Amino acid sequence: MERIVVGVDGSDNSLAALQWAVAEARRRGAHLQVVRSWTWSSPVADGLLTVPGDLPNQVEAAVTAELQQQLERVDTDDVDVEPMIAYGSAPSVLTEIAQGADLLVVGSRGRGGFTGLLLGSVSQQCAQHAPCPVVIVPSGTP
Prior knowledge:
Layout: E1 3-7, H1 12-28, E2 31-38, H2 42-45, H3 55-72, E3 80-87, H4 90-97, E4 103-107, H5 121-129, E5 134-137
Parallel strand pairs: 1-2, 1-4, 2-3, 4-5
């Protein structure tokens, strides 16, 4: 069975990527992995702040809920969907999970950066480093 990986971040552009990936998975009869990565801000990551014991679980629960909400906005009937939460930068997580996949799908712009740019850093990194073909879904794609 083919496997498609799609990255989501809760943005409208990632919703467009998810919709496109679901339609493609349905067309191919492929397994769809819907991936939401998360990471701490750099002061925490650099060890400058102490993280309260339960905070990582709370953040992961919030990210999981956001992923579920985004999945509820798309008709996934007749599609084998596997939601995944992974800790790490989006480009690293997506290119790692895409090992052995048939396709990696990302939106053209996510939550960060400047709105006038065509591609975001995640889509650029995935296009350059993915181990499989990459589809970058433009913003505004139904």
